Amino acid sequence: MNDVSLLEMLNAREMRCQLQQQLLNTYKKPLICLTMNIPGPVKLLPGVPNAFSAACAQIENLLKERLILVLHMETVKQKTGYEAFYCIDSAPEFAKELMIVLEEQDALGRLFDIDVLRPDGTKVSREELGYPARRCLLCKKPAHVCSRSRHHRVEELTAEINRILNTFIEEGN
Known about the structure:
The protein has 173 residues and is of the alpha+beta class. The chain contains 5 helices and 4 strands. The chain has one domain (6-132): ACT domain (Alpha-Beta Plaits, 2-Layer Sandwich), CATH 3.30.70.260. It has helices spanning 6-27, 48-65, 92-104, 143-149, 154-170; strands spanning 31-36, 69-78, 81-89, 112-117. A 4-stranded antiparallel beta sheet has the order 2-3-1-4, sandwiched between helices. The longest helix has 22 residues, at 6-27.
């Protein structure tokens, strides 16, 4: 497994921001951004590629069901993690509500990190739509609290993520 350095993560984040800005400038429409919640230095755990593909399929199916036009779709696959971008013709708040459903529907959805950006680049937050903050995988406190305080060891989080991924694979995905 390939460890990702802090510099590689910072560079990947910068490239993601540049691509987001480019897509927002080009399409002037909301942008759905999918990444996976994988803490620690190894971002491509076994099962992550399949889980990412499942997340993309779920997003695409939900958008199709809701008759939301996808103007552009793009994926980036690197050792720093997989990312997907969907420029859509929809109200950003409605799109965020749909993405929250995917994030909360099952254990696998807990590994999805799906942001929705407005055409001006601001994020639609869960809280502004009346939803609670995401919960920690291990203790159910708000995830951002545990993340910032490093309340759990990376090994504990990785073990839980691997359990979720293994369950997903065992179920035939």
